[in-house]
């Protein structure tokens, strides 16, 4: 026995002279990581889909609000603009090009004009949009109604 082997045996008596065993194939950490991934992946995917749908409905709400404001701004220019229903609808829908599920009736723009208590002309522009989710959520509807009404006083 050399001096080095004697030193190793004194400092680690159980290790010296022992053969290393090969680890068993099923005792590695790879299998555990695979099981953890299989258990957590569905939860993470559902959370990700929920975040995407939440972001989409928030974007839809902002786009519908902006569309109603654009229509009301157009209607508030003068009495002729307030009577131009087609122009108001065109101004309102010009800002909804990035919405999904658009069609000639979605979003739907309605215009109501009238006089307030002081006799001043106003225009109410309502934009209605039907939002459809990507994923059918249990306990929730597959589509939601997003509405916004903006009232603008018409300039005299």
Walk me through this protein's architecture.
- It is a single chain.
- This protein has 156 residues and is an alpha+beta fold.
- The chain has one domain (30-153).
- The protein is 45% helix and 20% strand.
- It contains 4 helices and 3 strands, in the order ααααβββ.
- It has helices at 3-11, 29-75, 79-83, 85-93; strands spanning 108-115, 121-132, 143-153.
- Strands 1-2-3 form a 3-stranded antiparallel β-sheet.
- It is rod-shaped and about 110 Å long.
- The N and C termini lie far apart (110 Å).
- The model has no long low-confidence stretch (mean pLDDT 85).
- Beta percentage is 15-25%
| H and E order | HHHHEEE
**Strand order of the biggest β-sheet:** 1-2-3
Q: Kindly report how far apart the N and C termini lie.
A: 110 Å
Q: Give the overall pLDDT as a whole number.
A: 85
Major pleated sheet: 3 strands, antiparallel
Low-confidence stretches are none
Query: What value does the Rg take, in angstroms?
Result: 34 Å
Quickly count the helices.
Answer: 4
Structural class: alpha+beta
Q: How would you sum up the global shape?
A: rod-shaped
**Strands, count:** 3
- Tell me the helix content: 40-55%
* Total domain units: 1
């Amino acid at each position: 026995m050399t001096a080095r082997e004697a030193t190793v045996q004194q400092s680690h008596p159980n290790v010296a002279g022992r053969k290393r065993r090969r680890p068993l194939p099923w005792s590695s950490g790879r299998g555990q990581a695979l099981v953890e991934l299989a258990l957590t992946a569905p939860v993470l995917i559902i959370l990700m889909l929920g975040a995407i749908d939440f972001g989409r409905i928030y974007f839809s709400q902002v786009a519908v609000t902006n569309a109603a404001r654009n229509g009301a701004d157009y209607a508030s220019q003068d009495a002729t603009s307030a009577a131009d229903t087609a122009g108001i609808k065109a101004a309102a829908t010009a800002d909804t090009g990035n919405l999904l599920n658009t069609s000639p009736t979605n979003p739907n723009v309605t215009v109501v004009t009238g006089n307030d208590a002081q006799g001043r002309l106003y225009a109410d522009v309502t934009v209605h949009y039907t939002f459809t989710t990507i994923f059918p959520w249990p306990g929730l509807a597959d589509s939601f109604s997003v509405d916004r009404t903006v009232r603008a006083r018409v300039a005299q």
